[in-house]
Amino acid sequence: MNQLELKEDKMLEVRFVGDDDVLNHILDREGGAKLKKERTQLLVNAKKIIKKPECDLEEDDQEVLKDQKYVEVLGRDIPESLKNGSAANGGNKVYSFQNRKHSEKLAKLASELAKTPRKSISCNLKDDPEVTINIPQSSKGHSPSDKVQLKNSDKSEFLSTKSSGLRKRLIVPSSHSDSESEYSASNSEDDERVAQEYEEDSNEVVLSQKIQAQNRVVSAPVCKVTPSKKMKRNKTNDLVEEYFEAHSSSKVLTSDRTLQKLKRAKLDQQTLRNLLSKVSPSFSAELRQLNQQHEQLFHKWMLQLHLGFNIVLYGLGSKRDLLERFRTTMLQDSVHVVINGFFPGISVKSVLNSITEEVLDHVGTFRSVLDQLDWILNKFKEDSSLELFLLIHNLDSQMLRGDKSQQIIGQLSSLRNIYLIASIDHLNAPLMWDHAKQSLYNWLWYETTTYSPYTEETSYENSLLVKQSGSLPLSSLIHVIRSLTPNARGIFRLLIKYQLDNQDNPSYIGLSFQDFYQQCREAFLVNSDLTLRAQLTEFRDHKLIRTKKGTDGVEYLLIPVDNGTLTDFLEKEEEES
Amino acid sequence: MATSSVSKGCFVFKPNFKKRKISVPIEDYFNTGKNVSEDSKLRFETYQLIWQKMKSETEQLQEELNKNLFDSLIEFLQKSHSGFQKNSTDWSCQIRLREIPTAALVLGVNVTDHDLTFRSLTEALQKNVTPYVVSLQAKDCPDMKHFLQKLISQLMDCCVDVESREEESMQATQKKTYCSMGFLSSWYMNVTQTGPKVPSRKRTSSGQWQSPPVVLILKDMESFTTKVLQDFIIISSQHLHEFPLILIFGIATSPVVIHRLLPHAVSSLLCIELFQSLSCKEHLTTVLDKCVLSPSLFYIFQLLLTTQFPFKLSEKVLQALTNIFLYHDFSIQNFIKGLQLSLLEHFYSQPLSVLCCNLPEAKRRISFLSDNQCENIRRLPSFRRYVENQASEKQVALLTNERFLKEETQSLLENLHVYHTNYFLVLRCLHKFTSSLPKYPLGRQIRELYCTCLEKNIWDSEEYTSALQLLRMLAKDELMIILQKCFSVFKSSSGKQLGSTAKRIEEFLTQFQSLDAEAKEEEDASGSQPKGLQKTDLYHLQKSLLEMKELRRTSKKQTRFEVLREKVVNFIDSLVREYLLPPETQPLHEVVYFSAAHTLREHLNAAPRIALHTALNNPYYYLKNEALKSEEGCIPNIAPDICIAYKLHLECSRLINLVDWSEAFATVVTAAETNAGSTVSEEMNEIIHARFIRAVSELELLGFIKPTKQKTDHVARLTWGGC
């Protein structure tokens, strides 16, 4: 693949492996006893092999595998003993610390590196073209797929022994490895390997981490007696240590592959949606059952809302559909406001505005958000016949999670005749609320795991892999522009051109009003600055431009749309004309 | 969907005006969905009734608790203000005038409850001291300007009913433009001078003062920025002679914090007096903070222990609630919320809870029970147990004859009622005995005792036997004090059966008194053995207990006091064994006991992270599909996409390469899809990639990963360590 690159990396990797090896050397020496059972044994093994380079490759590999299986068995047992019983799941395994994994991976790699001594490589180089590819990669050694490739080369011989242990974990039909994918055959096999490795390691990880860490804390000989006992004692200590260890080194080793090398790198929102619509959801019967369970709670929710509690829903899966059903079945006869917290433009102000303007039919403005809040509070306190249901999807979204927003929503929800039912998704969402806020909200928690995809919630987001096509602002731009007079269009086009001319200028803050006026006048678009201002007001109403006061007090005009979209827009315009 | 749009995030739905008129009464929601459950309306009404009663009782309790505190505070305010009142030219007075009278109110860490206290404090102050009471919170006052603005606007509001409308609007403009201490004091002069001319409701109540002080309450003193606080104190001390300010600091931690926040130069301008929340004061001698904080809880328990409320909590629920209180928030409000929720859950889920009311009413309701409800009664486990122990003809009658069943239920309920009356009396009595024992084998607080009694037969526990042994060693005077207390407990009740108990205790008391003269001699004769015992600790006690046993074996001869003491202890023991049976033994206990502790914990003290992890890690837990069943720690490849992506990401360290991740994901998923060995089409790959994208963005939404710029096409992991 990219051998050059790999060779460059080679030096670095070798040194890193050496560190780990040295550490284990020391441990081993200090302990004086041979450590069995664990990862370290791999290293012991490896060391032995270094001493006797003539040792057979196959044997080693098998030995390693035996060890792995052994560790697997341990890994299966120990987490159970660690279970704290109260949580229905292995609560203590939640987010088990993974960063240690890395050094372990390396340890494993080290052993693998060690057991393919140079000599054998050089002779292999002559015979087998396939291995020549593998060797440099194995020396690179930090990408999981590459690491596996090494194994892969041996795979044909070891498949029987290996797979018996590994396949069990991941229920993969064996025929799969022959299947053709977009990649070359070996590649896809790699990946399967990776996946299997992943699966397998996830079991070991807790255990082996612990054991290894333990090896470091308690100097060797005692540790093989009863690992589980000490584990408890060292557990918290380890976690802290591990955290800092993992975050201290600025270097994180991951493969250097980038998405650009993949053919299908980024999809835009539309194609993504189309593609996903072709997927038939699995477990639909079970999902329906889950949903029905939740729907049975609707009456109870209404009751509890009326009795002064507010309801918050948590759990995996989009709760939007559920809330929507709640709305349509229970709230048809009452005033309610639905707030999409995931909407990027949402703010507390807009929430309050919709309450004052649309619910309470208030005309007029407020000096500040707090004033507005006070006004609403008073209004609701005075008139006890007023009732309002607030449905907030994603109360924990970027826009609403701020302290002030939460405080305001909390104050709203603490009113007797405002009923709040909200959903949260983020892992750390409950951290938004301190005791004071929690008492304002007066939450009752309901777990509603739905497993439904967060389609709507993630569609606004600048997702990692989703290309922002900008089709949305573009089409709205076109729509607005079409409804304008030719002169107005000209004015706008002038502004776009100016902005595009200046797109490389980082300190560009906009076109000053005076300059703009001059340009428009020269193009015979306006005859007085009053007409220009009238046009600008229209743009502003459509949110096509933004004005900003510069440091010198001059007004600057800016189009808050990204340049790519603007270029597209200009092209489209020219096509049409 | 009507609620998704690319241009706005808020959607208001208003029903037609006509429709809105028909509002659904709340009790209709008491039905669980389609099937109308029994007596829901009645149950809801009972719920409302009991809850209202509970609420008012608890409020009253808190008021009582606060009363002493408020009285002393008000006294302090009046005293400190008198200096200003006299307006004397006395030099010492002048000096004192430089100091702002300050009350530091230590309220404890249960911040959520403070609001209530402050609210009632404000009311009390407005009634008794001054109309000008302002309370500020730290979050409203990030700087001096806001501080003064808030202060002024609240002050203006205080006397809004005195001012006319135009003045108010004038003030509104002033509020914006001009906020300074000088303005405040001139306003104050203005108001107090014109005050007497304008007769006002508030003024007359505090009419004894020409110039009422301005009381400023800083609700959360600790969170104010020191600068603001210092500046304000310095400035206002300059104006003190024309603007009589009194400060009240609300302190959650300890009074030391004042000196930590304010340098000496500033704190010397204050004349601080400390007020502990008085209920705590009684318990301050006991060192444990638990005791400092839980007295109000203690009182609420007293409330629960009365027979006044027919509704009872089972041991597990009680434990859950106290745990939330002690280990999570120390908040009485939340405790009461938990109480409300359990009450609601009980009435909502148990159809027979309709009988959970006072006895005469319950009896009346029994006669109106429907056939379905009778069936419900027959289905109760406790009732079935009861039936099984009856004679066979009675069994048949109970199971077939509705009338007979109703009569029986009435008598059973009556028994239950009597059981409770006796239960609480004996519990209190036992508490009197055990609360004074060294090391408190059965707990210091009555709630601990109550919990153990609810849980099991208390006399089977080791603690109980050791407690009894300790009781057998009590000195006479101690025993007599306890007996006195018990006597008053029993006397206060009007129980029928336990009337004789009171008599028995009285007899014991007189016997002890008659012993007095002889006992003294005997005690002298028998040496100082019992006296020496009473001061030792548990270890020594037990040791000497063993010795005593030996002694007793060898020398059978007991003093008369010892005989009597033995009698008393045996008597108590018999009382306990007779009356402190756990409620599960009583037929029909389900009617009044709420036992679903897990629902409480679920709704009050939820663990969203664990739920999320379980859903991702073990989908079988939620989706009961056999295909998803797997060993601990691994998931099958047909699991939902997000679970697979999650599982894979767990293997990575701080950074995750998206390419590797997506390839791993694709392998797992294709393995699941193409089990027939068919070739993977390009389109399928596309779809799988799309699924991966979705899974990743969902994980991002859930907060497991975030995009990073450290390396191209990498994401950063955000979770580590245990939850």
UniProtKB/TrEMBL annotation, chain A:
GO BP term, pick one: DNA replication initiation
Region Disordered, residue ranges: 118-206
GO CC annotations, alphabetized: centrosome; chromosome, telomeric region; heterochromatin; inner kinetochore; nuclear origin of replication recognition complex; nucleoplasm
One GO molecular-function entry: DNA replication origin binding
Residues in Origin recognition complex subunit 2 RecA-like domain copies: 287-447
Compartmental location: Nucleus
Keywords for this protein: DNA replication, Nucleus
Residue intervals of the Origin recognition complex subunit 2 winged-helix domain: 504-563
Biased amino acid composition, Acidic residues: 188-203
InterPro entries: ORC2, RecA-like_ORC2, WHD_ORC2
Compositional bias per record (Basic and acidic residues), positions renumbered to this chain: 143-157
Domain of life: Eukaryota
Function field: Component of the origin recognition complex (ORC) that binds origins of replication. DNA-binding is ATP-dependent. ORC is required to assemble the pre-replication complex necessary to initiate DNA replication.
Membership in a protein family: Belongs to the ORC2 family.
Assembly notes: Component of the origin recognition complex (ORC).
Protein name per the record: Origin recognition complex subunit 2
Organism, as annotated: Loxodonta africana (African elephant)
